[in-house]
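TetR/AcrR family transcriptional regulator
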Amino acid sequence: MAEATTVRRSRITPEREAELYAAVLDLLREVGYDALTMDAVASRTRSSKATLYRQWGSKAELVVKALRHQKPVNIGEIDTGTLRGDLHELVTREDDCRMEQDTSLMRGLAMAVHENADLLRALRELLFEPEMTGLERMLRRAVERGEIRADNPALEYVPHMLIGALVVRGLVDNQPPTQAFLTSYIDAVVLPALGA
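Predicted structure tokens:
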């Protein structure tokens, strides 16, 4: 009788994983998503392409998990007791420099998703859906506290307002988003739209 064999993933330490993710994001900033290859990642990180595929399955999954890794904040866990406090706390979780880098990456990826269904699927499943779930939880708590009405039509547009503020600031004002801008935007646009 033949002995059953199991395929095991090699264990990558958290430090090594962070190093790989940092290299992926550096390459992404340098060459963009389309020109980013698993060969380039393997070369930059002194690892084998086979290891990368075994651990992450695809370039899209690797890129999105790298983005997720650098943004470990779970929006749903933020609970200051008020919606305004929660949204302001969300803004303070990233400094201005990181926010500018993230926004630049997301603009580049937004263009790439039009040509790459795998990237769009990975972004939705691994990045956007967890963020949206957390934001929905935050908004539900605000409804339960009586800060906003459950039937307010602006509720479904909160993600659009927040993402729009991040992405469009550079186009309209030729400036990167900052904590000060986003805090002011939340107070002037998001909270009034919600009737908070």
